[in-house]
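Support reply, case 0932

Customer input (verbatim):
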Amino acid sequence: MKLRLPTILLLIWLCLTCHGVAQINVSLHLPRTSFLLNEPTVATITISNLAGQDLLFEDSPDFGPWCRLELKALRGDFVSPRREEISFPPLIVPSGKTISRTINVSDFFFLDHPGQYKIRVGVFFAPTRAEFYTQSTFNADPGRMEWAQTVGIPEAGNNGGKFRTFALVTHQRPEGIFLYAKLEGKEEGIRFSPFFLGRLLSAMKPQPQFDASNNLYVFHASSDSTYVLSQIDVDTGKFGQALYRPSTPRAGRPAMSKDAKGHLVISGGIRVHEEELTPKSTSRSLLSERPEEFQPKPAR
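Our regenerated output:
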């Protein structure tokens, strides 16, 4: 049986396409399967090029974006994206190399409700019209509320006279219990991304205290010998931490309190590093502030 020329060309195209599929590997990795609701839900997309030549991934006027994201609740509908079309800048993957890019799922979708979700990533290579899919699931957990307090911002602050609400929330995962702090201005509609304070030793309850300017300090045990002091600015959300240990092996657990003049003091503990609280960031990003592009990670 003789094959017609169009049939032969079609078979050649199918062979090249299938061969191309085998030459590109795409994977999706999440560092864990459970996240506190509204904390950064980081996922890493990895593309490996085994094609023997450099590959360019870019949007196509005929087929649309080269990288496509979908988020769906396992017991519900697709989650609405934050913008009509999700688009990424072109990406060149050199021959024989693997390139990873990290995204925060909450930057692209309105991930505001607790539950289980499935994220699906599609990478489209326009020259061969081949698309590669990968997916993963995770849980968005509201956590357990441990404490909450509303305070005012001093008049000297940028938002003087307004009110902010602090809260402490615990999130239990298979590897342990972790402590977070939340900060929001309900009257302004402002909500900061949760502050990760670290692992929590359940034998000691976290100790929240306010200074004279209504900045929050939280002292908690992350292990029998390690204690963490966290500070959050009520106005800007500036965040810092310092580590402490018991002053002597038999001194018992350190504790935070106020002295007669209203100053915060740590009794029974010695700071591991003598420098002042190390800032984690000069300013705390709001949940409404979203980056536009991938954040690169080193190639493997």
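We compared this against your earlier run and they match. Two observations from our side: The chain is about 10% helix and 45% strand. Residues 22-141 form a domain with the Immunoglobulin-like fold (CATH 2.60.40.3880). Please reopen the case if you see a mismatch on your end.
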